[in-house]
Amino acid sequence: MEQYVIKGGVPLNGEVSIGGAKxxxxxxxxxxxxxxxxxxxxxxxxxxxxxVLLQAIEGIGAKVKYVYNNTVQINGGSIxxxxxxxxxxKKIRASYYLLGALLGKYKRSQVALPGGCNIGSRPIxxxxxxxxxxxxxxEIEHGKISTKAEHLVGGHVYFDxxxxxxTINLMLAACLAEGDTILENAAKEPxxxxxxxxxxxxxxxxxxxxxxxxxxxxxxxxxxTTYSIIPDQIEAGxxxxxxxxxxxxxxxxxxxPKHLExxxxxxxxxxxxxxxxxxxxxxxxxxxxxxxxxxxxxYPGFPTDMQPQMAVVLALxxxxxxxxxxxxxxxxxxxxxxxxxxxxIKVEGNxxxxxxxxxxxxxxxxxxxxxxxxxxxIAALSADGISEIEDIxxxxxxxxxxxxxxxxxxxxxxxxxxxREALKARLKIG
Length: 430
Fold this sequence. Notes:
This protein is an alpha/beta fold. The chain has helices at 22-31, 48-59, 86-89, 97-106, 125-133, 164-174, 190-201, 233-245, 261-269, 307-315, 335-340, 370-382, 393-396, 402-407, 419-429, and strands at 3-7, 13-17, 38-42, 63-68, 71-75, 83-84, 108-112, 137-141, 144-148, 156-158, 180-184, 205-207, 213-217, 226-228, 249-253, 273-276, 280-284, 293-295, 320-324, 344-348, 351-355, 364-366, 386-390, 412-416. It has a 4-stranded mixed beta sheet with strand order 22-23-1-24, sandwiched between helices. A hairpin with a 5-residue loop joins strand 12 (205-207) and strand 13 (213-217). Helix 1 (22-31) packs parallel to helix 7 and helix 10 runs parallel beside helix 12. It is globular. UDP-N-acetyl-alpha-D-glucosamine binds at residues 93, 122-126, 305, 327. GO terms for molecular function: UDP-N-acetylglucosamine 1-carboxyvinyltransferase activity.
């Protein structure tokens, strides 16, 4: 079992480059099969989730070619199956985007009910409601969700809750439906805009992405294109918060600063200096962090995917802070691990009450999910002594070469896959 061995107490310093947005890539890779022509996608993050989705795409007959490490060519002209295998799907949640992509292109699809991180219930009722509004029949049986339509026609969908997944899935299906579709109360995240821009580059007609009303005029077919994925705001935020927690000075490059505004604002509130350039953000932390309150909200609010990392920063700040989670109900599973390091965090309902401490100490920990795992790494980097973090496959789902990028900033971190290697790593960095 792979794990990280980390010696903390070293301020992070230097520059780090951010890769493509995982959450945008998953929607874009699924959309790429909707044409029979070749699509070239650049800045694809080489992480476990994207690799698994590409395996699923190959599994239904599409051709996938890695041109470089972060550039992929996909041709959906050879797809021979609309049934996506469960072995792939149970590993990642966003494989359900293949439902909308296949339904749009072939007017039918079948995908096993999805997996992913266990951070709370993420029902697909809004996806189903949307597909039905476009004229599709939807059935769930034997652990699979199936859709089919004689004719896919435009419809009016009002989402009961703001949902990124259903917004993307309905954009995929609706762009090849007959007539006009309106999606109201749509999600506004940057990766929604990126998927819409990609579809438009393939010949779709989508307007309003980034607002809560998206209007789609159906087209008869899509064509090939070359497209580059936007930078990952959550990867960028993770390094920004790592700088804050370790009293570091880090320049985060290849980003879109506007996407990071809610994060930068909180870092300034807690006492960090944040300097923005055209495509970079510098975070300087001199310690003496101050407490603040945070509530997760849909974009442009504070992202739920940055909540665990924020909690680590606040655990090292002077005073009492509150972190309220309004998106997922099961996102505080990392708190017990942090408390074992000496943090003072108490969870009541959907709120964590954090009493800041002067220092924390290394411990043996286990990553409960992707973002919580990244938060535990930040905590280990800021702690006295050596920490070991298990179940890092969660972290590898969303961060490309995480330990390599951290080492480039001066972190003492090793990835090992045996007790013998762990012992050597402890001796090396201890």
